[in-house]
Specification:
The structure holds 2 protein chains of 2 kinds. The longest helix of chain A is centred in the last third of the chain and has 46 residues, at 216-261. Chain A has a 4-stranded antiparallel beta sheet with strand order 2-3-1-4. Chain A starts with a helix and ends in a 5-residue tail after the last helix. Chain A is α+β, with helices and mostly antiparallel strands. In chain A, helix 7 runs antiparallel to helix 9 (216-261). Chain A has helices at residues 2-19, 21-58, 71-82, 95-105, 109-114, 136-147, 160-201, 203-211, 216-261, 273-296, and strands spanning 61-65, 87-93, 124-129, 152-157. Chain B is built from 7 helices and 10 strands. A 6-stranded mixed beta sheet of chain B has the order 6-7-8-3-9-10, sandwiched between helices. In chain B, a hairpin with a 2-residue loop joins strand 9 and strand 10. The chains are: A alpha+beta, B alpha/beta. The A-B interface holds A 1, 4-5, 8, 204-205, 208-216, 218, 301 and B 49, 51, 72, 75-79, 83, 85, 89-91, 93, 102-103, 105-108, 110-111, 150. Bound molecules: adenosine-5'-triphosphate and magnesium ion (MG).
């Protein structure tokens, strides 16, 4: 019984769409375009976020030590730092190691450095912080604290610019949110007006139906379904478009992009399955809401 | 079945379409509501299905006071009342069978039952060969019969027919009246609004006369 009714209302909704194909196509198109913009933002943010997470993962503090510290002093320092609450790992790099890795990092440099009769590079500690202490603020604070330890010359946490990147990301997120909100309102406006149009083309029929004893629910349900279908079609279309763009554009240039972005194993990824589901449900919710407000003032026979 | 006590109705301020209407329609009766054009016949029928609201007075339908009925209860009142509209109000984009099926769809009957009942009632009004036609492909008399079929498909307790024989020739009128008579003998209470003098003379039903919104005869 319930199933029969559902299919009945679904058929009515499809009738509505068939009777106003142009208007419905416009609504679906508008939803698709705004959701395309929206999900492009989503994809951008999710990728930047995972990039950031990757960087956070790799972040470490380098402590450059004063020259001429005794072995015992260095041991003591290492113990002391390791005992600090948020320090997970510490590795000592002596002057020779520092020089040889410096030589390795810049090919051709060894020729130049070979003749140095004393090693200018300081010994250092490489410190990794505990997972819970890896936010930029905490890294910054830890570096500051570590730099005041006696025998420590300087504390550097490699990617200081990542911090700036992180703030710009927060700003971009805000801007995205504002744009998203505007898009949302515009889309709801368009959807509600399309539904209103289908309502008007059926006004007489609805009034007659009402006089024959139809409830509000009976009359509204097809329009709600119409809105939901519009939302679903629009958001699905936007995802398909985004995926196509992702395959064609991003995969093609990804090798160069990747190389320039990070040295690591970062892969630009498409929206995750949960996000895709959210986008589709978001589309349906939006369509439903659009039809809801368009029917609000209607139906008072 | 239908009771009215001191009912007033005005579309505009100080212009009563109905004035101090007192009326009692027994269950199973057949009543003709007559009067010249503009007397308030259609308005009176519209009050019974809450298409219009009385400005004053009490109206009981099936023992229930409908003057302060909740908006959400109106559909259930209408399901019990078949209406034949003065202007038919058929859905011109839908076939005859779809038109007649609509009241059954509204109350959520199964597809099988809808088909069965709609076909039976169309057969009763002699239109079983027209089920796939559209209203505008039918003559006026045939459209009127479709309207009656739609009003009766639900087996309603009350049938309100507004000028069901208007603009029809004698033969068609008689056919319509016969259909209504049959529905009445099956127990449906019928109120028929008309200004057709022949109807009043030829059928010996109770006649309620309206003029300028007032009841002038009630017999
Ligand atoms: N929607 C409306 N708005 C304003 N006035 C109306 C409306 N409907 C009817 N009237 C007025 O109410 C009065 C009664 O109208 P009603 O339609 O009930 O008459 P009637 O007896 O059915 O006439 P007819 O035989 O021509 O159908 C008339 O004066 C008419 O002008
Ligand atoms: Mg009338």
């Amino acid at each position: 019984m319930v199933f029969i009714k559902t299919s009945y209302f679904l058929n009515k909704a499809l009738d509505n769409i068939r009777q106003n194909p142009f208007v419905n196509l416009i609504a679906i198109g508008v939803i698709a375009i705004s959701f395309l913009i929206f999900s492009t933002f989503l994809m951008l943010f999710s990728n930047l976020n995972s990039l950031l997470a990757l960087w956070e993962e790799e972040i470490q503090i380098e402590l450059f030590l004063d020259d001429n510290l005794s072995g015992e002093k260095i041991d003591a320092l290492q113990k002391k730092i390791l005992s600090m609450a948020n320090v997970k790992e510490i590795r000592y790099i002596n002057k020779e190691e520092a020089l040889s890795s410096f030589k390795k990092s810049i090919p051709g440099m060894d020729v130049l450095v070979k003749d140095l009769n004393n090693n200018p590079l300081p010994a250092s500690f490489e410190i990794k912080l505990a997972e819970s202490s890896k936010s930029f603020d905490m890294v910054k604070a830890a570096a500051k604290k570590l730099s005041t330890i006696d025998g420590v010359n300087d504390a550097v946490y490699g990617q200081e610019w990542v911090e700036r990147f992180s703030t710009s990301l927060a700003i971009a997120r805000l801007v995205g949110l504002i744009i998203g909100a505007f898009l949302l309102m515009a889309t709801i406006f368009i959807v509600s007006n399309t539904i209103k149009l289908t309502v008007y083309t059926r006004k007489e029929e609805l009034e007659i139906t009402r006089l024959l004893g139809a409830t509000d629910r009976f009359i509204r349900l097809p329009f709600f379904i119409e809105g939901i279908l519009q939302g679903l079609a629009g958001s699905a279309l936007s995802l398909a478009g985004l995926y196509l763009a992702y395959r064609i554009f991003i995969i093609k240039v990804s090798s160069s992009v990747q190389a320039s972005l990070v040295t690591g194993t970062f892969q630009i990824s498409f929206l995750s399955t949960p996000t895709i589901t959210y986008v589709l449900f978001g589309g349906m919710a939006l369509g439903l809401f659009g039809s809801f407000i368009s029917l609000g003032r209607f139906l008072k026979v | 079945m239908i009771e009215m006590y001191h009912v007033y109705m005005a579309y505009q301020r100080d212009a009563n379409a109905l004035e101090d209407i007192n009326l009692k329609i027994e269950k199973g009766s057949f009543v003709l509501l007559t009067g010249p054009s503009g007397a308030g016949k259609s308005t009176l029928l519209k009050l019974i299905t809450c298409q219009e609201k009385a400005t004053k007075g009490q109206i009981l339908v099936g023992g229930r006071n409908i003057v302060r009925i909740r908006h959400s209860s109106i559909p259930y009142l209408r399901r019990n009342t078949g209406i034949v509209f003065q202007d038919f109000k058929l859905l011109n984009k839908r076939t005859i069978i779809d038109n007649v099926s609509l009241p059954l769809e509204i109350i959520g009957k199964s597809r099988k039952e809808i088909k069965h009942k709609a076909w039976n009632v169309l057969k009763m009004v002699g239109l079983q060969h027209k089920i796939a036609s559209y209203p505008l492909q039918l003559s006026g008399g045939e459209q009127q019969r479709v309207a009656i079929a739609r009003a009766l498909v639900n087996d309603p307790a009350i049938l309100l027919a507004d000028e069901p024989t208007g603009n029809l020739d004698k033969e068609n009128s008689e056919y319509i009246m016969e259909l209504l008579r049959r529905a009445n003998t099956k127990g449906t209470t019928i109120m028929l609004a008309t200004h057709d003098k022949n109807l009043i003379e030829n059928y010996h039903y109770r006649v309620v006369g309206l003029e300028k919104g007032k009841i002038i005869s009630n017999g």
